[in-house]
Automatic annotation (TrEMBL):
This is TINAG protein. The gene is Tinag. Pfam families: Peptidase_C1. InterPro entries: Papain-like_cys_pep_sf, Peptidase_C1A, Peptidase_C1A_C, Somatomedin_B_dom. The keyword Protein biosynthesis does not apply. It comes from Nyctibius grandis (Great potoo).
Length: 388
């Protein structure tokens, strides 16, 4: 067995050497002389292609037009194959292309010459056809890879965006489609849990909160379609972007409160509310971008109130970034309608504080929730996310 495969291997190498030697000379003749098709060489071409895959053009890079320097030494200096377009120009005639030319270079898009050093250095690594020197560190989605003794050594984190998972979901019948959201590219699943969520599980007191009495209608009394943005087009605010700040507790509360204040005041107060105000100033048992509780946020909205988004914009002075300290830039006192100082954003004049009455819990009956939304506006809900 061993002997056999050795023989086969030698034979194929010999065949390639022979072919490239023969065809090399073609470069010295006017075109058209070698237009006779050779079935035998096509056959060998196929065989050796499977044996030499990834050895020549993939390493050498492809070149446009005719470029006699765009070659690859196979065994000895005398045996050369080419990775330029010219090698395949006599279609379907004889070729002096390298075995993997058809796989690597023969695409409808223009072949591009690679920037790789030539001849290839003794050490270093390749990724997607690019050469990286020994010791280079690159990022591959959420993992970092180091070229060590010509091999990539990568960390083995589970990434938030995974091509295989996207394909798996989209080939099944799950009722939704997965996509590569570029803002999540490069994050680990663990990082996603930490930075893209951020509401603590409900406290005992929140779970034991008495539900407001439901006054729901039978289901058929509801309209077939209802959307808050259609019912109150001027008063519903766009969703807020928490970026990589795990403070959904503050962002969702600011957003729901702003909608409800606008609806309740019949359009007298339509300002966006400052989630940053909550993240940075509501610090009692709250942890800013590392998570917090929604009942704490609602209590803060009742006692202190928050300013508008324009007054205290999100990510003000980068203070929501992980490295930044979480400094509160407004001070509010109980019972006052304005902060003690001007807005952090000097361009905004109004330092008015917005407050809410006590928060309450809606019954978990679906029609009770529908009635609540139709009468008073958006509600806030919590979902528990698990990795499966
Ligand atoms: C996903 O998106 C990122 C950023 O836009 C991109 O760099 C990456 O190649 C994409 N990955 C896949 C598998 O499509
Ligand atoms: C709320 O903020 C968004 C940007 O996040 C802005 O486009 C919109 O005009 C703001 N609305 C109000 C009422 O300030
Ligand atoms: C604050 O505003 C509320 C409602 O507009 C008003 O009733 C109250 O008198 C104001 N308080 C102060 C101290 O101005």
């Amino acid at each position: 067995m061993w002997l056999k495969s050795q023989i086969l291997l030698l034979y194929c190498i010999a065949s390639e050497v022979w072919m490239t030697k023969q065809l090399d000379s073609r470069r010295n003749f006017p075109q058209g002389l070698y237009s006779v098709e050779d079935g035998g060489s096509a056959k060998w071409n196929r065989l050796k292609r499977s044996l030499y895959q990834g050895r020549s053009c993939r390493v050498r890079g492809c070149c446009t037009g005719r470029n006699d320097d765009c070659n690859f030494n196979i065994i000895s200096k005398a045996a050369i194959c080419y990775c330029d377009q010219f090698c395949a120009s006599d279609s379907p005639g004889p070729v002096d292309c390298c075995a993997d030319y058809w796989d690597v270079c023969d695409h409808p898009i223009e072949p591009t010459r690679s920037d790789e050093p030539w001849p290839p250095p003794a050490s270093g690594c390749y990724k997607d056809g690019r050469y990286y020197g020994e010791g280079t560190i690159i990022k591959d989605n959420c993992n970092s890879c180091k070229c060590f003794q010509s091999l990539w050594k990568c960390s083995k984190e589970v990434c938030l965006v995974r091509q295989d998972l996207i394909q798996y979901i989209n080939s099944g019948d799950y009722g939704w489609k997965a996509d590569n959201y570029s803002q999540f590219w490069g994050m680990t699943v663990e990082g996603g849990f930490k930075k893209r969520l951020g509401t603590f599980p409900p406290s005992h007191s929140l779970l034991n909160m008495k539900e407001a009495p439901g006054n729901s209608l039978p289901e058929e009394k509801f309209p077939a379609f209802f959307a808050a943005t259609y019912a109150w087009p001027e008063w519903i605010h766009d969703p807020l972007d928490q970026r990589s700040c795990g403070a959904s507790w503050a962002f969702s509360t600011a957003s729901v409160a702003a909608d409800r204040i606008a609806i309740h005041s019949k359009g007298q107060f339509t300002d966006n509310l400052s989630a940053q105000n909550l993240v940075s100033c509501d610090t009692r048992n709250q942890h800013g971008c590392n998570g917090g509780s929604i009942d704490g946020a609602w209590r803060y909205l009742k006692t202190h109130g928050v300013v508008s988004y324009a007054c205290y914009p999100s990510f003000w002075n980068d203070h929501l970034e992980a490295s930044g300290e979480n400094h509160c830039y407004v001070s509010s006192e109980y019972g006052k309608n304005y902060t003690n100082e001007p807005c952090p954003n000097a361009l905004e004049e109004s330092n008015q504080l917005y407050r809410c009455a006590s928060h309450y819990r809606v019954s978990s009956k679906e029609t009770d929730i529908m009635k609540e939304i139709m009468d008073k506006g958006p509600v806030q809900g919590m979902v528990s996310l698990e990795d499966d």
